């Protein structure tokens, strides 16, 4: 059986290698999972499949899936393709309140993810930033405390089994009156050092560095490239972590829309160890539906506009659809799961080629063999 391996094994094996591990959120599994696994096998690349709390949870999330359903779909695809070096990552286990109720509900989700076979976890308590704090440590105190509590819970529930751990110091895509808020080296070092003092040792740190989740649009409502990632700041944060002997590297969120030639040319591989791609794969499926499932696509399009137009009346139909169509996935889950084999084959073929491009840009060819040596 090609079961998922612990995320920490991937991260520790590939730390400071000239490579980024592709981590993909697959909201619509059929065809995509097989295409990505085949690309990873072709290039001998370690790969991560992930899903966020908002996408998939005990209440099904906006994809209409619970953790066990997602895990089983990925495991079946791994078995079909016969590929072994992959991890199953719980992306953005987000806590926005940090209240006892919030923490208790999150612990239940984590338990469901562990029972489903997840081998890596991303705790996101970045919303719990104290703007009234007198210094960086005080500003991050609640994030540190909640992250520590949940990490300890994961450790306890894993019962000695190794696992990957990603934590988040800066809210991705957050803006203030000056524009994008970015994580400083001091914030990153303070956060990770405090976690280490609490006997929590993440391998990966998500930072705010100018990226945004999902599709990005210009003022006219046209989709545009994601080129706002602050590479110098990212390098500065990574350098500070190294200089302070903290064995943590960076997770780059919000890569959808970033040109892959730009990724290959300027992304600091080794500083960035994990690259998240989510909405890109959703876009690929929807574009395939336009040709292979036009009636389904039109129904998804109409439902999205009808449901969300009143919430954002000023933006174009294209932007409204692009920003909200993810919520239609669960609504149309049954019909999505019932598309014909020809459609699934087209999705697999397209995703295979696109994944090869990401893996090449990430420099991840041969990383699976490096990980295997550590098994």
Structure description:
This protein has helices spanning about 5-15, 30-45, 65-80, 100-115, 135-140, 140-160, 185-195, 230-245, 260-265, 280-290, 295-310, 315-325, 330, 335, 340-360, 365-370; strands spanning about 20-25, 45-50, 85-95, 120-125, 165-170, 175, 180, 205, 215, 225, 250, 270-275. The strands form three sheets. An eight-stranded parallel beta barrel has the order 1-2-3-4-5-8-11-12, surrounded by seven helices. Strands 6-7 form a two-stranded antiparallel ribbon. It has one domain (about 5-280, about 360-370): Aldolase class I (TIM Barrel). Helix content is about 50%, strand content about 15%. By secondary structure, it is of the alpha/beta class. It is globular. It is built from 16 helices and twelve strands. The model has no long low-confidence stretch (mean pLDDT about 95). Helix 2 links the parallel strand 1 (about 20-25) and strand 2 (about 45-50). It starts with 6 loop residues before the first helix and ends with a helix. Helix 7 packs parallel to helix 8 (about 230-245), helix 9 (about 260-265) packs parallel to helix 15 and helix 11 crosses helix 12.
Shape call: globular
Could you tell me the CATH topology label: TIM Barrel
Q: Compute the gyration radius: what is it?
A: 20 Å
Count of discrete structural domains: 1
What is the CATH domain class? Answer: Alpha Beta
Helix tally equals 16
β-strand percent reads 5-15%
Largest sheet: 8 strands, parallel, barrel
Give the structural class: alpha/beta
**Strands of the largest sheet, in order across it?**
1-2-3-4-5-8-11-12
Please name the fourth-level CATH homologous superfamily.
Aldolase class I
Mean pLDDT reading: 94
What percent of the residues sit in helical stretches (DSSP H or I)? 40-55%
Second rung of CATH, namely the architecture: Alpha-Beta Barrel
Q: What ranges have pLDDT less than 50 throughout 5 or more consecutive residues?
A: none
The helix/strand order is: HEHEHEHEHHEEEHEEEHEHEHHHHHHH
How far from one another are the termini?
A: 15 Å
Total beta strand runs? 12
């Amino acid at each position: 059986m090609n079961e998922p391996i612990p995320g920490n094994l991937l991260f520790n094996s590939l730390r400071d290698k000239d490579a980024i591990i592709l981590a993909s959120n697959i909201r619509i599994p059929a065809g995509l999972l097989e295409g990505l696994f085949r690309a990873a096998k072709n290039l001998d690349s370690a790969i991560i499949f992930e899903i966020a709390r908002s996408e998939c949870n005990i209440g099904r999330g906006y994809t209409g899936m619970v953790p066990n359903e997602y895990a089983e779909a990925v495991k079946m695809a791994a078995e079909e393709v016969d590929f072994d070096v992959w991890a199953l990552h719980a992306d953005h286990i987000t806590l926005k309140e940090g209240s006892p109720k919030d923490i208790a509900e999150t612990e239940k989700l984590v338990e469901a993810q562990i029972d489903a076979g997840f081998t890596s976890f991303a705790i996101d308590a970045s919303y719990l930033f104290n703007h009234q704090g007198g210094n960086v440590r005080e500003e991050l105190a609640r994030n540190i405390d909640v992250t520590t509590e949940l990490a300890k819970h994961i450790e306890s529930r894993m019962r000695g089994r190794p696992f990957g751990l990603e934590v988040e110091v800066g809210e991705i895509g957050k803006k203030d009156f000056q524009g994008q808020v970015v994580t400083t080296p001091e914030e990153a070092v303070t956060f990770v050092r405090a976690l280490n003092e609490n006997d929590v040792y993440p391998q990966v740190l998500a930072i705010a560095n100018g990226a945004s989740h999902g599709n990005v649009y210009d003022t006219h409502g046209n989709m545009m490239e994601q080129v706002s990632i602050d590479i110098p700041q990212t390098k500065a944060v990574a350098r500070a972590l190294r200089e302070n002997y903290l064995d943590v590297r960076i997770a780059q969120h919000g890569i959808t829309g970033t040109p892959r030639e730009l990724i290959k040319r300027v992304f600091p591989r080794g500083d960035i160890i994990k690259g998240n791609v989510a909405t890109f794969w959703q876009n690929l499926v929807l574009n395939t539906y336009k040709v292979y499932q036009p009636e389904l696509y039109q129904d998804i399009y109409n439902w999205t506009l009808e449901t969300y137009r009143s919430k954002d009346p000023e933006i174009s139909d294209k932007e409204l659809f692009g920003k909200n169509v993810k919520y239609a996935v669960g609504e149309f889950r049954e019909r999505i799961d019932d598309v014909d084999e020809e459609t699934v084959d087209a999705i697999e073929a397209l995703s295979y080629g696109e994944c090869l491009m990401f893996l090449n840009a990430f420099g991840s060819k041969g990383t699976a063999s490096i990980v295997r040596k550590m098994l």
